[in-house]
Design goal:
By secondary structure, this protein is an all-alpha fold. The chain has 13 helices and no strands. The protein has a domain of 120 residues: Alpha Horseshoe (Serine Threonine Protein Phosphatase 5, Tetratricopeptide repeat), CATH 1.25.40. Helix 5 packs antiparallel against helix 6, helix 6 packs antiparallel against helix 7 and helix 10 runs parallel beside helix 12.
Length: 275
């Protein structure tokens, strides 16, 4: 279910789509807050989110009811989010959380903060801040509200964030490979195997470890990583490529499955001795 629909259901509003509309805004002077709120809601329904945000903020300052003021505050924040004014929306949400910590929509505010951070993750491999910020907010929400209706969505996004971290490590490792800096390349690849073993990048990381070790003359190490790759991903194209790296007469030693309670990757990490 889309984020907007979840939000509207939670606040008993109606569905809408995003657009940026900075309609002319003239603040009311001590007007009826319910009337102001209705003006904001009407603008909201017409996708005039910037104008709606201003009206909701004005309504908040005029309401004497804490509950109505809190609703106006979060509606203002969501209106800014709807037009991708992320920083302004985040500022409004942080203010809402500080002023209305007991409001019934406080959980949603934390969820929206996590979503805002997540949506700001880009393709830039050098800037860790968006990734770290998204991870921090997602982890906070899942720790505080592990059984909420939003936990499934954020658990999925957490996995995607982990993939982004792994992708960044692989990007750096490939750079080191390109300039033939083998030790830092190996260290980056081992981080993927150790910390991001459930991501889609672990297969390639293991293959690159085979390539590097074979290239620098550590054939037994190369065979070891190839065996790990084959044991876990024997139908993978990366395993087939690793096989080609090694001599054709080499027979991969079959690793017997562990009968104990230890996970396979725990054993693998012991084998390769990642510090």
């Amino acid at each position: 279910m889309k984020l907007r629909l979840i939000f509207i259901l939670s606040l008993a509003l109606l569905a809408f789509s995003c657009s940026k509309d900075k309609a002319d805004y003239i603040p009311s002077i001590k007007s009826d807050p319910y009337k102001i709120y209705k003006e904001g809601l009407n603008a909201f329904k017409k996708n005039q989110f910037f104008f709606a945000s201003k009206k909701f903020t004005e309504a908040e300052t005029n309401f004497t009811s804490p509950e109505a003021a809190a609703k106006s505050s979060i509606m203002s924040a969501f209106s800014l989010y709807a037009i991708s004014f992320y920083q302004e929306a985040e500022d409004n949400l942080n203010r809402y959380i500080k002023i209305y910590p007991a409001d019934k929509n406080i959980m949603y505010a934390h969820y929206l903060l996590a979503i805002i951070s997540y949506e700001q993750i880009g393709e830039e491999k050098h800037d860790l801040k968006p990734l770290l910020d998204a991870k921090k907010k997602i982890d906070f929400f899942l720790k505080k509200y592990p059984n909420s209706e939003y936990a499934i969505d954020l658990n999925l996004k957490k996995d995607l964030v982990r993939n982004q971290f792994a992708a960044r490590e692989l990007y750096i490792a490939k750079y080191y490979i390109k300039v033939q800096k083998w030790v830092p390349a190996i260290n980056r690849l081992k981080i993927i195997v150790k910390d991001y073993d459930r991501t889609i990048f672990v297969e390639e990381a293991l293959h690159r470890l085979v390539e590097i070790h074979y290239h620098i003359g550590l054939e037994q190490e190369a065979k070891k990583f190839a065996s790990i790759l084959g044991y876990n991903y024997n139908s993978s194209e990366w395993f087939q490529q690793s096989y080609k790296v090694l001599n054709k007469n080499y027979n991969f030693k079959k690793v017997e499955k562990d009968k104990s309670d230890k996970a396979l990757f725990k054993k693998i990490l012991d084998i390769i001795k990642i510090n």
